[in-house]
Amino acid sequence: MKQNVLARIERKRNSVEFEAYGKYALFSDPVTRVGGEKFSYQIPTYQALKGIAESIYWKPSFIWIIDAVRIVEKIQTEGKGIRPIKMSGGNDLAYYTYLKDVRYQVLAHFVWNENRPNLQNDRNENKHHNIAKRSIEKGGRRDIFLGTRECQGYAVPCEFGAGSGFYDDYGEINFGFMLHGIDYPDENGGGIFGVRFWDYQMEDGIIIFPPLDSDEIKSRTIRDGQKIKMFNLGETLKPVGDEGGDE
Fold it and tell me: Distance between CA 96 and CA 155 in Å, rounded?
């Protein structure tokens, strides 16, 4: 039952809860993009949800961790004929398959980015947490996209697990081996740019993500020796103590 799944989820003292929704979403399967056409995964990836959290509020001094997502509405798809611009000029014809009428509840928390020791003075957990919650109430600091630019999304506060959902008490669904997320050099500390994959399991509409260091997650290095973009407090980054709130 849904309540049994919710009981297994641990909330942190800096957790945030929000609902992301929109008319369309496109969480592209990389396998289907080779020929120029896009077919969405049936559910959002960890990285897509992290991107939504970063659009709501983000600073390089911390990293968002997605704990769980709840699929509220029935999974539906809709195909559209698209005329993308070709690199050589002119237009081409392609079919994109979108998710339709989506709504997701997200539970997340943040941890300090230990690979940026020069930002230690920006580690005010209470201040960041309060700004993040106010940003959710305002709908986010930046535009929210559900997987891709043409899929406008919206964010509102919620209580994770509250309300009825299509997959409540539905049982288990295995979505198979999918893209989990991207490893960036400033987050892994090894100058590595890579990708992660995971076997997605949904139970009663809820997906609980394992820790990033779990053996369940498989990683692949794309490039190593990558440089980290630097941020300096007071120069290229405003200290959190000087933040005015959610403006």
Answer: 24
For tokens 């592209």, name the residue: 28
> CA triplet 113, 114, 120: central angle to 5 degrees?
85
What is the assigned CATH class of domain 2-172? alpha beta
Helical ranges in 43-202 per DSSP H? 46-56, 125-137, 185-188
* pLDDT at 247 exceeding the cut of 50: no
Opening angle at CA 161, ends 27 and 205, nearest 5: 50
Q: How far apart are CA 105 and CA 158, in angstroms?
A: 7
Q: How far apart are the first and last CA of the chain?
A: 41
Locate 27 and state its tokens.
């969480």
Which tens digits make up the pLDDT trace of 161-202? 999 999 998 999 999 999 999 999 999 888 899 999 999 999
